[in-house]
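Open question from group meeting: does this chain pack into something compact, or does most of it stay loose? Before anyone orders reagents, we agreed to write out a predicted structure and look at it together. Recording both the input and the output here so the notebook holds the full record.
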Amino acid sequence: MKDKKVLDVCCGPKSMWFDKKDDRVLFLDKRRETHKMSRKSGNRVVVIDPDEIGDFTDIKYDDNTFTLIVFDPPHIPQETQSGNLCNTYGNLSGDWKGMLKKGFKECFRVLKTNGILIFKWNECRIPIKEILLLCDEKPLFGHISGKQMNTHWVTFMKE
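Structure tokens returned:
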């Protein structure tokens, strides 16, 4: 953990990272799994291998520890983890609104003052405006991207 300034609280397969072993980043996820997937374009193996197993609603670090936090939670409400998307990125189940609200609170707790939180959300099922209501902090700015313009990147700064 020493010298880690960046925390990815639900890293999954680290698909957004240029360097999946970046020494500056602590990769956290609640699962360590490997999935073999069959697709029309060919077979693929997805590996979820965080540095630490942990839950973004209960981060085991002191207050004000990280300079930058990446929060890219699962975005598909589904009671069981099944299918390629859920196997890759996880799923939302149970009281998922309460879970995401706790996740935002925990991220801001371990974020240093003037630190940055990057939140990523794909609104294929749930609009971003509903998700941002679960966060007590005010976002600075955001950007919509992706082929269907469904992925939102939102930037927060801890005051």
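Observations to bring back to the group:
The radius of gyration is 15 Å.
The CA atoms of residues 13 and 48 lie 5 Å apart.
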